[in-house]
Write a structure and sequence with these properties.
This protein is an alpha+beta fold. It has 2 helices and 8 strands; from the N terminus they run αββββββββα. It has one domain (20-152): predicted glycosyltransferase like domains (Thrombin, subunit H, Beta Barrel). Strand 6 (82-89) and strand 7 form a beta hairpin.
């Protein structure tokens, strides 16, 4: 009984500490930050990337669906590997560096190849990209509806 009460309090505190997540499915491109410790600064993954969609976004991190949990032989999650991420937020590209914190295999439907859900913490983002990202977090539904309406009317 005491254990249940402590667990409930811990979950409540964790919920207050976490940034609220917004469920947006936007295109994402992911690739490894070149490793400065590699001989001649040549990374075996240079120029190789994954394409996917986000599951949710928050001020502190992102979750995205990816077709694979690794690029070549390197896993997206673990060993404090820095990932470069490019989000397409309603036609505006936002770049950030993240560190993968967790992943899970998800049931894939026949329409997509997205088999893994990756949770990542944002570790670096420019001030300009941060403003664009936060604006999208706060007004994303309106932005998406406006874009959809303009596409229906052929205004693009």
């Amino acid at each position: 009984m005491i254990r249940d009460a402590v667990l409930k309090v811990t979950k409540t505190i964790a919920a207050f500490r976490a940034h609220p997540r917004k469920k947006y499915r936007v295109p994402v491109k992911v690739w490894f930050e070149p490793d400065a410790n590699t001989v001649n600064f040549k990374s075996p993954n240079l120029g190789v990337f994954l394409l996917g969609k986000t599951a949710d976004l928050s001020l502190g991190g992102i979750a995205f669906y990816a077709p694979s949990i690794r690029i070549k032989e390197d896993y997206l999650v673990g060993q404090f590997r820095i990932l470069n991420v490019e989000l397409d937020l309603a036609g505006r590209k936002v770049h950030m560096k993240v560190v993968g914190r967790r992943y899970e295999q998800v049931a894939s439907d026949l329409v997509t190849d997205d088999r893994y859900l990756v949770g990542a913490e944002i570790v670096e983002i420019s001030n300009e990209d941060r403003k664009t990202y936060e604006h999208f977090l706060n007004h994303g539904n309106k932005i998406i509806k406006t874009m959809a309406a303009s596409m229906e009317l052929g205004l693009d």
